UniProtKB/TrEMBL annotation:
Keyword set includes ATP-binding: no
Protein name as annotated: Beta-glucosidase
Keywords: Glycosidase, Hydrolase, Signal
Lineage: Bacteria, Pseudomonadati, Bacteroidota, Bacteroidia, Marinilabiliales
Native source species: Labilibaculum filiforme
PANTHER family hit by this protein: BETA-D-XYLOSIDASE 5-RELATED, SUGAR HYDROLASE-RELATED
C-alpha cells in the first residue's frame, strides 16, 4: 500500500499540468444513471488536456491491450518485462484473472503492483483498465460462480440478475478491476451454436430486460464506483444478418436498450460479417447504426484477435496493417487482447492511409472511459484494503436462489417431488457425482481448464454436485447408490472450431475432467437400478462439450448416454432424467419413457443442492424456457415468433412445470385506444389452485389481427413473476405503450393503427386469456427511433 501511495504522489505533477485547464469546473453534473460525477464536456476536456502532453507512442499504448502473463516470470510480475514491453503504458489488461491461480488478496496486490509501475515509471503515469469476464460472476479463483446466462434467462427474474451482477461488481472492484466484457446479448435460435449457453435465449424482449438488469447491477448507481459493462456481440452474432426488419426490430434491440436505458459506454463488435464486411471494420455497423442511429458515444473494443482476423481469417484485408486501418476508420477504438495489427498504425500514418485525428478520437474515447471509472483522478482507488472474500455467505445464497430459479421441470408424471416411500435411489450417469456439469463457459473454472490447461480447485469456491446435494437433502434415511454407467463421450465428441488454438486443447481438458474419476461400469449401473425404487440419471454436457471454440457433431445426449438411458428405462423402474449443459439436447426418443425430466443447464456452484431441493420438494420449480426446445437435430433456426407452423417443438418458449397449478381469470382491457396514448391497461387475476406455494411467470404476448400486417404472428410484450401462496389469488396489471408495437418498415420506425390481440399466457402456446384492442389514428412515425421498449407492471 505504501508503494501505491508513493506512486500517486509521483504522478501528481503530470496530472496537475494536464488538468490545470479544467480544475474547479465541476459545476454541471451529468444526470444519467451510472454517470453522475462529471459532464461529458468535462470528461472530454480532461482527456484532451492529457493528450496534449502525449507522444504518438503513448497515445497508441492507450488503444491496445495485453495479457498479464506476457509480463510475468514464474508466476510473478517482471518489472524488466514491463519496461521492455509496455514502456509507454497500456490501455487494458485483458482477462487478467482467469488465467491465474491467486487468492483474492494476491490478485489485488498484483493489480496494485502493475498500476504502481504504470503510475511511477511511465511518463504519462496513466493507470490501465483491468477487465475480465463476468456473465457467471467475476471470473477469478474463489469467486462466486452463478448459473450460466441461459439458465438465468429461464428465471425471468430481473431483480435476481441485478443482485448477482452487483455482487460481481463488488468483487471486481475489490480486486482493482473496473471493466467487464459482459453481458452477452446475442439472440440464440439454434441449439447447434456452441455459444448459445452465454445468451438469455431467443427473444429480444426478454433478453433486453434481463440484459438491462445485469448492466444496472454491474455498473451501479455511479460508474466511478462500479464496473463498466460491455454489450456484445454487436450485432446479430450467430445469425446471417440478412433480414433488415428482423435485424433492427430484434437482434439490435438488446444492445439498443442497454445503451439508451442502461447507459452502457462499451460495445464489442462480433467476429461475424455484416453485408459482406467484417463487423469490426464495418462503418455502417459501427458508425451509421451504432453511433448515429443509436446515439452511442462510448468506447468500441475489439473481440480478441478480431482486428487481425479481418486479414488472417476473413481475408478481407491484404495485411495486418490494412486491417488496423480499416478497423480504426470504421470506429473500432481498441485492439484486444494483444497488439497485432495496431502497431502498424505509425507506418500507416506516414503512408497517409489514416490520419492523426482518427487516432486521436480513439485515444480520447479510451481516456474518457478511464476518467469515467475514476482512474484519472488524482488519487484513484485501486482495490480494497484488508482481507477479501469473493464467495461470502450472502453470495452463496444468491447462487443458490439463482440455481433454483433457473432449473426447468420439463416433464413430471407425479414422481416429483420424491415421496416418503422412496428408500433406495440409483444415482447414475457421468454428471451424477462430479462438478464438471455445473460449470458453463466463461466461468473461471472453464477458462482456466480449457484455455490454459490448468486444474481448478473444486473447493474454491465450493462446488456442490448432485450426489452431495441429495445426501444433504435426504440424510441417512434414503440409501443412495452411485455408479457412472457411461462416460460423457468416449471419443472427443467436439472439435476445435477456431484456428490456432492447438489440436490438443480438448484432449487436455478432457484429461483434467476425468482425472481421478472411476471407469464407468454399465453392468453395475443396471444392477443397482433394477434394485432401486427410483433411478436418477444425470446426463448431458460438461466444459469440453459446450463453449466457445467447441463444436459438437449433434445436439442429442453425447456419446453413449442416450443408449444408456434407454437401458435404464427398460428396467421398468421410474427414471428421472436430469440434464446438464449449455443448450437444449434432443430427447424425443426418451421423453415418453422418463417419469420426469429436469433441465439443469450449467447451474453454478450451488447447482447440485438446488436440484436436490427441487427433487425433494423443499423448492417448488418456477423456471420457464427462454429458448424453444427442439424435437429434432434440424440445423435451421427455430423461433417461436414464427408460430411453430412447420416446426413443432418438444417444449415451447415460455414453458415450464410447477408442483402446483395456476388459473387465470377476469381479463379486463379497453376495446380501443389512441395510437398517441402513453399507455393502456391490461388487468387480470392469477390464482394458485394447488396445495403448494409457488411462483408463476405470467407472460403477455401480442398478435396482429390485420391480414396485411408485417408483424410476426406472436411476440412477447411483458412478463411478471407472481409469488402465490397455496390458494392465494392476486391481481396483475400491465401498462402497455402503443410504441411497443412499432415496426421497422422502409427504414422508418412506424406504429401502425389496426387491431391487435393481447394474450395472457403460461407459455407462448398456452394462452389462458385474450382480448383484441383497436389502435385508432394515423400511423405514427418515430422520427428519433425507439425509446419505449417495455410494459410497465403494477
Amino acid at each position: 500500500m505504501k508503494k501505491l501511495k508513493q506512486s500517486l504522489l509521483s504522478r501528481a505533477s503530470f496530472v496537475l499540468i494536464c488538468l490545470s485547464s479544467i480544475l474547479g469546473c465541476q459545476s454541471e453534473a451529468v444526470q444519467e444513471k451510472g454517470m453522475q460525477s462529471f459532464s461529458n464536456a468535462e470528461l472530454e476536456a480532461k482527456a484532451l488536456a492529457i493528450m496534449s502532453q502525449m507522444t504518438l507512442d503513448e497515445k497508441l499504448a492507450q488503444i491496445e491491450g495485453i495479457r498479464p502473463n506476457d509480463l510475468m516470470i514464474d508466476g510473478k510480475l517482471s518489472l524488466e518485462k514491463c519496461r521492455e514491453i509496455i514502456p509507454h503504458g497500456i490501455g487494458h489488461f485483458c482477462q487478467f484473472s482467469s488465467s491465474l491461480t491467486k487468492s483474492p488478496e494476491e490478485l489485488r496486490d498484483f493489480v496494485r503492483e502493475i498500476q504502481n509501475y504504470l503510475m511511477t515509471e511511465t511518463r504519462t503515469k496513466i493507470p490501465a483498465i483491468f477487465h475480465e469476464e463476468a456473465i457467471t460472476g467475476f471470473a477469478t479463483q474463489g469467486a462466486t460462480t452463478f448459473p450460466q446466462q441461459i439458465g438465468m434467462g429461464c428465471s425471468w427474474n430481473e431483480a435476481q440478475i441485478t443482485k448477482n451482477s452487483a455482487s460481481t461488481r463488488r468483487n471486481m472492484r475489490a480486486a482493482g478491476a473496473t471493466y467487464a466484457l459482459s453481458p452477452m446479448l446475442d439472440l440464440s435460435r439454434t441449439a447447434h451454436w456452441e455459444r448459445i449457453e452465454e445468451s438469455y435465449g431467443e427473444d429480444a424482449y426478454l433478453t433486453s430486460a434481463l440484459g438491462l438488469a445485469f448492466v444496472n447491477g454491474l455498473q451501479g448507481e455511479d460508474i466511478r464506483n462500479g464496473v463498466a459493462a460491455t454489450t456484445k456481440h454487436f450485432a446479430g452474432y450467430g445469425t446471417q444478418n440478412n433480414n433488415p426488419k428482423e435485424f433492427y426490430e430484434e437482434y439490435l434491440m438488446p444492445h439498443e436498450v442497454v445503451i439508451k436505458k442502461g447507459n452502457v459506454k462499451s460495445v464489442m463488435p462480433s467476429y461475424g460479417r455484416f453485408k459482406g464486411e467484417a463487423v469490426v471494420t464495418s462503418k455502417e455497423m459501427l458508425r451509421t447504426i451504432l453511433r448515429e442511429k443509436l446515439g452511442f458515444d462510448g468506447l468500441v473494443v475489439s473481440d480478441y484477435g478480431a482486428v487481425n482476423l479481418t486479414y488472417s481469417g476473413h481475408k478481407l484485408a491484404s495485411s495486418a496493417k490494412e486491417a488496423a486501418v480499416m478497423a480504426l476508420n470504421a470506429g473500432t477504438d481498441i485492439e484486444l487482447a494483444k497488439p497485432i495489427a495496431f502497431p502498424y498504425l505509425p507506418e500507416a500514418l506516414k503512408e497517409g492511409l489514416i490520419n492523426q485525428a482518427t487516432i486521436d478520437d480513439a485515444v480520447k474515447r479510451s481516456l474518457i472511459m478511464k476518467a469515467r471509472l475514476g482512474l484519472l483522478d488524482e488519487n484513484p482507488a485501486i482495490g480494497v484494503d484488508g482481507e477479501l472474500d469473493f464467495d461470502p455467505p450472502a453470495n452463496r445464497k444468491l447462487a443458490y436462489e439463482s440455481a433454483c430459479q433457473s432449473i426447468v421441470l420439463l416433464k413430471n408424471d407425479g414422481i416429483l417431488p420424491l415421496k416418503s416411500d422412496v428408500k433406495k435411489i440409483a444415482l447414475v450417469g457421468p454428471n451424477a457425482a462430479t462438478v464438471h456439469g455445473l460449470l458453463g463457459d466463461y466461468t473461471y473454472q472453464s477458462m482456466i481448464s480449457f484455455w490454459w490447461s490448468k486444474e481448478f480447485d473444486p473447493n474454491n469456491p465450493k462446488l456442490i454436485s448432485l450426489s452431495e446435494g441429495l445426501h444433504n437433502a435426504l440424510g441417512k434415511d434414503v440409501n443412495i447408490e452411485h455408479e457412472r454407467g457411461c462416460d460423457w463421450s468416449a471419443p472427443l465428441e467436439s472439435v476445435i472450431k477456431k484456428d490456432g488454438l492447438g489440436d490438443s486443447r480438448l484432449a487436455k481438458v478432457k484429461m483434467l475432467t476425468i482425472k481421478d474419476v472411476p471407469q464407468p461400469d454399465l453392468a453395475n449401473a443396471i444392477k443397482i437400478s433394477k434394485e432401486s425404487d427410483v433411478i436418477i440419471a444425470v446426463m448431458g454436457e460438461n466444459i469440453y462439450l459446450c463453449g466457445e471454440g467447441r463444436e459438437r457433431k449433434g445436439i442429442r445426449l453425447p456419446g453413449e448416454q442416450e443408449a444408456f438411458v434407454k437401458k435404464l428405462i427398460a428396467t421398468g423402474k421410474p427414471v428421472i432424467l436430469v440434464m446438464y449443459g449449455g443448450r437444449p439436447q434432443v430427447v424425443n426418443e426418451l421423453e415418453k419413457g422418463c417419469a420426469a425430466i429436469v433441465q439443469g443447464w450449467f447451474p453454478g456452484e450451488e447447482g447440485g443442492q438446488a436440484i436436490a431441493d427441487i427433487m425433494t420438494g423443499k423448492v417448488n420449480p418456477s423456471a420457464k424456457l427462454c429458448i424453444t426446445y427442439p424435437k429434432s437435430e434440424d440445423k435451421k433456426e427455430v423461433n417461436y415468433k414464427n408460430g411453430y407452423v412447420h416446426d413443432q417443438p418438444q417444449y415451447p418458449f415460455g414453458y415450464g412445470l410447477s408442483y402446483t397449478n395456476y388459473t387465470y381469470s377476469d381479463l379486463k382491457m379497453n376495446a380501443s385506444a389512441k395510437i398517441t396514448d402513453e399507455r393502456f391497461e391490461i388487468a387480470f387475476k392469477v390464482k394458485n389452485t394447488g396445495e403448494k406455494d409457488g411462483t408463476e411467470i405470467v407472460q403477455l404476448y401480442v398478435s396482429p389481427k390485420d391480414e396485411n400486417s408485417d408483424m410476426k404472428p406472436i411476440q412477447l410484450k411483458g412478463f411478471q413473476r407472481v409469488d402465490l401462496k397455496a390458494g392465494e389469488e392476486k391481481a396483475v396489471k400491465f401498462l402497455v405503450s402503443p410504441e411497443q408495437l412499432v415496426q421497422y418498415i422502409d427504414e422508418q420506425w412506424i406504429v401502425e393503427s389496426g387491431k391487435y390481440e393481447f394474450k395472457v399466457a403460461a407459455s407462448c402456446t398456452d394462452i389462458r386469456l385474450s382480448e383484441t384492442i383497436e389502435l385508432k389514428g394515423d400511423a405514427k412515425i418515430l422520427e428519433n427511433g425507439r425509446s419505449v421498449f417495455f410494459s410497465k407492471n403494477q
